[in-house]
Amino acid sequence: MSVAMADTTAQSFDSRAPSPSPPPPPPTAASPGPRANALEKIFHDALAHTLRSCSYSSFAACFPTLANYVPEALTGLHNDFVTKLDEMCKVSAARVGMTTPALDADSCCAQSEFEALLDERSVIGSLNDLDTHIVEARLLKERAEAISLNSGQAAVHSKP
Description:
The chain is mainly alpha-helical. It has a domain at about 30-130. It is about 65% helix and about 0% strand. The protein contains eight helices and no strands. The protein starts with a helix and ends in a 9-residue tail after the last helix.
């Protein structure tokens, strides 16, 4: 490589030169806000409702022969099935501050899939941004109403 070419290459990678791309937006807090907490609560409530709706009568309807000839075995199978399904869908202790031990990622299928979707689509950050925009909009509305009261004119958003 020639000396002239080396100087040109060094100049093109000069770290002091301004970046041609815009600066990245400021980071959004990863801790869930009110809407993100509500979404997680709805998910867990729906999951709990699904587990509660797995009644013995519904389960027995799927296995009519066992229900007729060995109902006690089917009752045990139903109890084991519901217990195992509940264990697989439990939320990890670190996520909600429970005292039960955390399940590994493979056994916690519903929770891990939900968390993967939240992360993959940046849902927590988007909901936090929405919360921020709502707060800002309320402040702007209050300021506009205060200005309109002081000036005696109707606020722009309340005109027909």
